[in-house]
Amino acid sequence: MSSLRxxxxxxxxxxxxxxxxxxxxxxxSMFASNVFTGRAMREYLSDEAYKSLMNSAKSGTKIDRKMxxxxxxxxxxxxxxxxxxxxxxxxxxxxxxxxxxHDSFFTIKSDGTAIEIFDGDxxxxxxxxxxxxxxxxxxATFEARGYTAWDPSSPAFIMxxxxxxxxxxxxxxxxYNGESLDYKAPLLKSIAALDKAAVDVCHYFDKNVSxxxxxxxxxxxxxxxxxxxxxxxxxxxxxxxxxxxxxxxKGQQLEDHYFGSIPDRVYEFMQDFEQESYKLGIxxxxxxNEVAPCQFECxxxxxxxxxxxxxxxxxxxxxxxxxxxxxxxxxxxxxPFAGVNGSGKHNNWSLATDTGVNLLAPGKTPxxxxxxxxxxxxxxxxxxxxxDLMRAAIASANNDHRLGANEAPPAIISxxxxxxxxxxxxxxxxxxxxxxxxxxxxxxxxxxxxxxxxLLMDNTDRxxxxxxxxxxxxxxxxxxxxxxxxxxxxxxxxxxxxQSLKNFKREVDALIEKGEKKEIALMHVLRKYIAxxxxxxxxxDNYSEAWAEEAKKRGLxxxxxxxxxxxxxxxxxxxxxxxxxxIYSERELEARHEILLEDYVKKVQIEAxxxxxxxxxxxxxxxxxYQNVLVENIKGLKEVGLGESSYKAQLNLAKVxxxxxxxxxxxxxxxxxxxxxxxxVDDMHKRAAMYCNDVKxxxxxxxxxxDKLELLVDDKTWPLPKYRELLYxx
Length: 730
Ligand code: ADP
Ligand code: MG
Fold this sequence. Notes:
Elements: H1 4-14, H2 27-30, H3 38-44, H4 47-59, H5 65-81, E1 86-91, E2 99-104, E3 106-108, E4 114-116, H6 120-124, E5 125-126, E6 146-150, E7 157-161, E8 164-175, H7 184-202, E9 212-226, H8 227-231, H9 234-239, H10 264-279, E10 284-289, E11 295-300, E12 303-304, H11 305-325, E13 328-331, E14 345-353, H12 366-385, H13 387-393, H14 397-400, E15 415-416, H15 419-431, H16 452-462, E16 468-470, E17 475-477, H17 487-513, H18 518-532, H19 545-554, H20 562-566, H21 572-580, H22 586-639, H23 648-679, H24 684-695, H25 697-712, H26 723-728
Parallel strand pairs: 1-8, 15-16
Antiparallel strand pairs: 1-2, 3-4, 5-6, 6-8, 7-8, 9-11, 9-12, 9-13, 9-14, 10-11, 14-17, 16-17
The chain binds adenosine-5'-diphosphate and magnesium ion (MG).
The site of adenosine-5'-diphosphate (ADP) has 14 residues, from strand 9 and strand 14.
C-alpha cells in the first residue's frame, strides 16, 4: 500500500527542475521595467500632468480630475504597449495579504462600439465589492461601501501572472466615511505626522531641512519546501505550518546551514523571483541561507517606508507565485516547524532629511552630534513610553510561537544601543547637572563619529537577542514576524516617534523662552529623557531567564500571547497618541483591535480543526493499521505454537499504540468541546482569550502522542511527509 506521502516523494524525485538563471543579463537592464517610473511618466505624460503628479506624490495633495484623466491616459498607453489588458486597484486590507479586483480596459459604448478605456475616475477611486473584508464593525451591511483610493506616492506597476499582465494601482482602502480599513492609510498618516514633528525639531540644527523621510529596509526570512511534499500535508496547505511532526535526528545542531552554499534548486528559485522583483522595482540586494535547514533570507536596499512596505507585500506575493514554477512552496509563516528556528522580518528604520542626512547616523561635529543624539534619544524615549504598542504592533497568532521561544527576541520590548553609546548617555546623565554651565557643552564635543568602528563591532556580537537594536545608523526592530505587513510596526514606530519629538520640542521651547541658550536647553531635555527612559535599555542576553526577572522588577511588560498584547491598542494612552497625531480615531482603533482579535480566533480555530482532522483521519488510521499488522503477527506466532516470548515486544508495542490512540482521541474530543464553548461567546476579547488559554492547550498534547506514533508506526504506511523529508530533501 503506498501512502500519499510515498506518492509525493516519488513525484518529487521525478520532477524536472526548472532553470532560471540570469543568463548574462544585467540587473540594471531589467530594473523597474514594469514600473511606471519617473522616467516613464516623463515619456508618457504631458509636462503639466507630470508636474502635477510629481507634486502630489511629494506633498500628498490631491490631483484634480482633469489631470487624473491625463495621467490615466498616459498610464494606459504605457501599459498597453507592454501587453496589459486589465487594471486593478491593489491594496492591503487587514487580512494580511494583498487584494486585487481586476477590470479590463475593454468596454462597449452606447452605440455598441467596443473600445478600451481607462479614465481618471477609474484611476482615482474604486468601490470594490468589499463587504467581505475585515472591518471590525465599522461597516455594517447597510453602509457596506468601501473605497480604494489612489496613492500617487507609490508608483503603478505591471504584475505578470502566467501569460497575463495587469496594471496595478497602489491604493488605500477606506470605509465610506473615510475610516481606514487597511495598513497603508494609517502608515501614510504616520509618515506625514513624523515628517512634520521631525522637521520642527530639525530646525534647531538646520533651517534648510523641509522634509523628513522615514526609511525602511526589511529583511525577509522564509522557508522553502518541495511542493508535492507540502501538498501531502493538510496542515501546511491550510495553516502554513506543521501541526504534528517529530523532529528529525539531525536538526540545526550542526549549524551547517547558515551562510552555507545555497542548494541548486532553491538557487534557481531565488534567481527567478529576484528577476521578477527587479522588474517590479524591488531593489533586492542580499540572499543567503538562514540558521535552520531550508531557511533563507533576502533583503533589499532600504527605501522610503511607504514604498518599502508596498515592495515587501509585493515580494511575498511574487515569491509565492514564482515558487509554483519550481514546484516549491514558500513558507512565510513565523514558525513552520516546531523545534526549528522560526522566521522574522527585521525592520531597519531610520529618518532622512531632504538635505541628505541620516538623522540616526552619528555626526562629525558637535552640532551634528547633538542632532544625532536628539533623534537617537527621542527614539529610545518613544519606545520607553509606548513599549506596549510596539509589542501590540507585532502581535499575531503566528508570531506567538516565536516571541519568547529561545530563538527570537522575547516578548519583552527593550532597546539595545551598545557599549559606547551607553557610555555617552551615562555621561550626559551624570555630568549634565540641573544647573547648567557652559562647560557642559564639552560633552557635545565627544567625537562619536570616530568611535563608529568600535560601535559596530560592539553591535555585531551582542545585539542578536534584542528586539530593538541600534545598529550604527538605524534602529532594527527585530521582533516583526516574517508574514507580517510591515505597515503595522512602522505606523506605531512613526507615531510614537512623532509624539516624542513633539513633546521634546515643547519642553525645549519652554526653556528657551525662559532665556536658556538653545544648546543648553536641548541638552537639558535630553538628559531628562535619558534618565526617564533608562529602564527600557538592556544590553544583556534577552533570552535569559534572568532578564525576564529583571524586566519584571523594572516594570516592563511581558505579554506572551496575542490577546493580551493587543489590549495595548485600546488603552487611553494609545487612543490619545494615535488621535493626537491624526492616525486613528477611537472608533478606528477599536475596530482594528476587534479585527486583530478576530483574526487571531480564526487562525487558531482553523488550526484546531486541521489538527483534529489530521489526528483523526491521518494519524489514527495509520496507527490502527499498523496495530492490526502487529495483532495478525501475534496471532500467527501463537498459532504456529511459539510461546509468549516470541511476540512479547509486538504485544507491548500494540499496547503502547493503544495508549496513544486513546490519548489522541480524548484530547481531540476535549479540544472540540473547548472550541464549541469559545464559539458561543460573543465578546471577541473573551473568545480570543478562550482560544488562547483553552483550545490551544490541546495542541501540544495531541501533537505529543501523534509524534510518538510517528516513531512507532511502519515508515512505509505513515501518511504525512516527515520533517527530515521536508527539511533535507532537495
Ligand atoms: P549589513 O548589516 O548587511 O552590513 P547594513 O547595515 O547596511 O548592511 O543594512 C542592513 C539592513 O538595513 C539592510 O536591509 C538595509 O537596507 C537596511 N538599512 C541600511 N541603512 C538604512 C537606513 N538608513 N534606513 C533604513 N534601513 C537601512
Ligand atoms: Mg538584521
